[in-house]
């Protein structure tokens, strides 16, 4: 290793100007069949031209130690030798020589040895330039392309953050450019029958990196896809059969890029660019699907500029309908459904928007029903956003309307023995009112088919869903009661949830609601269930019962139910809080004359919780709390509370409440204390102020003490503290006057009795 060859440019000048001093190798016709197996390079036709470069490659491959300069010279000589061989046509035996010295493995080893924390040498760039030229030399890379690509990606993609790398590191941009050229060349230099396969492998590797949690890795992968797509879109000469071959990865890739381009991350612009050029590549392949020509004239008006294209998702979808195959469109649908699992809010919004547009053309986008149903299953396992679940509900409704037979068949296919997600899908189908009769007719036909009677073709999950459907179709008291009680014993709450959905459907008939009132204790017991979905569905069942049993029946139910609803006012789930308060209001308004006196006693206990929930941050809960408190004030005859309730002033309500109910101050205090630890700050603050007002009344403090205590305990501004103190002082003056009047009355009464 002491003697090194000259630089490639100097060596070229020396070798072109004079013959080599060393002995010339044997002529090509003298080389025997055994000679290519030798490790010596002297038998190569190229040896006479590039002797020193080939000797250096052979010596480097044998050496146990290589410094940075040796690595650089090794890679430069590979590039030099390969380019010279391609220019002169002296390729004979070169790939065998490279294989004998394990050239590809050596390049891979150099890439793997590079530190991933910094980029301080051109080794990565030279290695990828070497791989680029090697792809043109016979079959040197045969069977080793994927491992080389993995080594290149691993050595470059996990470098430090992009921030500042382009400005501070002179090797960064040139290394990425070398990778782009390498990827393009590996595709274009592949044998014609394997162009699609090579492109598929490269895109698969880059697609895996798009989903990385590292945003810098995402960014580099999307940029590489964009640059490769641009090269593909500008390439005009393809093998004859290339246009007819399908690239399976295109649908998945387009779907991921489509969602990325509507995100708020730093990959947005790069994803839009990659999506644009990838679509141009697809359109240039002239892969029009066999739709009527008038369809193209009507829909295919492609924006010609990049900005117009990125800002027009409708045009994108219409263009993709024309040029993508059904399987590719299905992959895009699945990618959009999968994007709902993303934590990015913008990703959720983009996916929902795409689904809305795609559902307008179900014949193009929803043809593969089994795959879409599986995608919905997987999405439901990882998402809980109400907006996403609603979009999936609409998607199921469209499938039920357009493809009822395929949807029923997909939902009845065998799943895991106790598949919670499959039960959730059945639950959604049963709970939707907009599912067309076609789906139910198809399901009824399959339920009564000979295959269903066998029962061995379906999993326990499907059999349970079928049982719920049968009970809902022809409900009897015994069957519904058995179904509800058996489902409570199941370890998975999804079984009970599905049973409650079926019960809700059965109760839509007023006659059935009156008949099934005997289930009321079981439903009330479910209000304490640990699963919030079960609690919410139990509330809905009670609401349906109250609606259909008539006012007299609802009044009798109300007296028993009001006490059970109060703990749900503080439930962690916003929907449960809202629905429980709504049902409380409904029951209070349902009271008839002979139950009013008992209703008043129960309703008073809800006054303080309703007052505090009026200040919730959830507008829906605050609004229904005001309405419920107004109903309670009306049944109790508290006319003076109606005006502050309507004006939404909780402190005015509290003041008048304390003035009116002097003997219940301690009860109100006891109810308000737990709210001092409530998660929402607005409710905590209202509870704190009410507690101060009530305690001041009990202690009967003077004006200065009131102001000092409020100022010390309040974290608000001085003006607000003084306002609160003034309110308390005004209330206390009224209370003192009431006490004096009561004392005077007692004295007068005692005097009158003595005189008598």
From TrEMBL:
Record has Repeat as a keyword: yes
Chain intervals for the UniProt region annotation (Disordered): 1-35
Alphabetical list of Pfam families matching this protein: HEAT_Maestro (PF21047), HEAT_Maestro_2 (PF23210), HEAT_MROH2B_C (PF23227)
InterPro entries: ARM-like (IPR011989), ARM-type_fold (IPR016024), HEAT_Maestro (IPR055406), HEAT_MROH2B-like (IPR055408), HEAT_type_2 (IPR021133), Maestro-like_HEAT (IPR048465), Maestro_heat-like_prot (IPR045206)
Each HEAT repeat, start to end: 519-557
Protein name: Uncharacterized protein LOC113984701 isoform X1
Domain Maestro/Maestro-like HEAT-repeats residues, every copy: 483-691
PROSITE patterns in UniProt: HEAT_REPEAT
Organism: Pipra filicauda (Wire-tailed manakin)
Domain Maestro-like HEAT-repeats: start-end pairs: 248-436
Residues in coiled coil: none
GO cellular component: cytoplasm
Keywords, alphabetical: Repeat
Domain MROH2B-like HEAT-repeats, residue spans: 67-187
Record Gene3D superfamilies: Leucine-rich Repeat Variant (1.25.10.10)
